[in-house]
Design goal:
There is one protein chain. The protein is an all-alpha fold. It has one domain. It is built from 9 helices and no strands. The longest helix has 35 residues. It is elongated, with a radius of gyration of 20 Å. The two termini are 17 Å apart.
């Protein structure tokens, strides 16, 4: 009887693939982005007296989205993914390197968007839109590189296209302010990721229709 032992590099690739191969992360984040776009839309159409209330609602939603996404994805994986294709723990050394990469990337993107937010307060929202576009595109390209995730490049392209559309159509009364706040970004990106995640999940379930225990 022989035992297949994965090399460190092969194990690292397998762990990376586990996070994106079933589509759950894309699906959950996509739905969250659509919800954020809806909140921005409702906020844009509310009166000035309700602006502060909507600001609080958006802040709470973003915090819950940021902190809850990984929890939801992990629960879905424990119920669907791991029973079918097993669980592979992160190698400790690679986990530290991955955390450092992600922190550097997150701080960089947050810095760009935060600086643009200060510009937005000064009354130049199109510069904020430009920074948001470049920040989100950079985030997805960074994740595509760090996670060996080809679809991340496609989502970066979606961000750039939606940014160009928002830049060109910012003066339209139907969605001008909403798109300048990032609503068009989150709507298009959310729909793209929801569809991409659903398609990836469908393919995954076709390849692994039953848990491992039922197949043996």
């Amino acid at each position: 009887m022989t035992t297949n032992v994965l090399s460190p590099r092969a194990r690292e690739r397998q762990v990376r693939r586990y996070w994106t191969e079933d589509g759950f992360a894309e699906l959950v984040i996509g739905v969250g982005f659509v919800g954020l776009a809806v909140l921005l839309w409702l906020s844009d159409r509310s009166g000035a007296a309700q602006a502060r209330l909507w600001g609080v609602v958006q802040a709470v939603y973003i915090l819950a989205f940021a902190w809850g996404t990984r929890w939801v994805v992990q629960r879905l994986k424990w119920r669907v993914t791991y029973p079918r294709t097993g669980y592979v723990a992160y190698p400790r050394q690679w986990l530290r390197r991955r955390v450092v990469r992600f922190m550097v990337l997150a701080v960089g993107v947050a810095g760009v968007i935060g600086l643009a937010g200060l510009v937005l307060l000064d009354g130049t929202p199109r510069l904020y839109l430009l920074a948001l576009t470049l920040g989100l595109a950079g985030l997805y390209l960074g994740l595509a590189w760090a996670q060996d995730w080809g679809r991340g490049v496609g989502y970066a392209v979606v961000v750039l296209l939606s940014g160009g559309a928002a830049w060109a159509w910012w003066h339209f009364p139907f969605w001008g302010a909403w798109s300048l706040q990032g609503g068009l970004h989150f709507a298009t990106l959310g729909v793209a990721q929801t569809l991409g995640g659903a398609w990836t999940l469908w393919r995954y379930l076709r390849r692994h229709p039953r848990p491992i225990e039922e197949e043996t």
